[in-house]
């Protein structure tokens, strides 16, 4: 709120103020932060209690662009734990100052602390956006090694990941899991690893597999997972394909989604496969275990699954 009770909107949110030292470097109420480390479980040195899960150590890119990482002490917590996107070391996030629970476990106080949200897709890749020199350069990474080789400093965040194979291939190239091609009016939830949810609709102007039929504006929701990834941003866009995706669920209204038959057209029914009569194949419906011949032959829970169909005559 500005003087004269005139509301200035987001201008107040981004209104900078001088630091207590009067330094010309101005501190914004919302500012970018560079993730130096993150607590994901009890093995992290940042862990003291379950509330520390998701806590990050970050570089204030507005003030600490030349400070060595060993001296970085800033802490921030997830802004909204009900909808959380956890960053990886080296990524950029947006930092907010707000009133939250501070102090130790025995002396809890409400204080002005930092929270973070929104992983910035600085490299336009939802999988991995680690930038090792954001706000600094290789000569400031380790003050004891003023001329650290680029190849060494570039990997310093990789070493902090428990499984680098989740984001890099065998040739050390960053994976680019395919991102969904958006259509008019879409709301898309895009995970890092090829897992997506699209809240979309039928539109005759969209080149989607479900827009070939149905009424324009009718809702559709598609959930999918697919391991297809590239290492080239020029080929990172894709659209759902019910025949090629690893797994998917389509919730339709008036749409018609064509799909190929997943098995041979000559696949025999269980009845024909096991030589069962009509009565045996039908089984029984009750609250008790089905004791029919079909149950005994097909769903034998006492045998390992890989042995279920080896000898159907037994």
Uncertain runs with pLDDT below 50, 5 residues or more?
Answer: 1-14, 22-26, 280-286, 297-301
**Averaged pLDDT:** 77
* Beta strand %: 15-25%
Sum up the overall morphology in one term: elongated
Number of strands: 15
Q: Please, how many domains?
A: 3
Structural class by SSE content: mainly beta
Distance between the termini: 80 Å
Share in helix: under 10%
Describe this structure in words.
The protein has 314 residues and is mainly beta. It has three domains: 3-165, no CATH class; 176-251, no CATH class; 270-307, no CATH class. The protein contains five helices and 15 strands. A five-stranded mixed β-barrel has the order 3-4-5-7-6. A four-stranded antiparallel sheet has the order 10-11-12-15, with no helix packed on it. The longest helix has 6 residues, at 293-298. It is elongated. The N and C termini lie far apart (80 Å). The relative contact order is 0.08. Mean pLDDT is 77; it is low at 1-14, 22-26, 280-286 and 297-301.
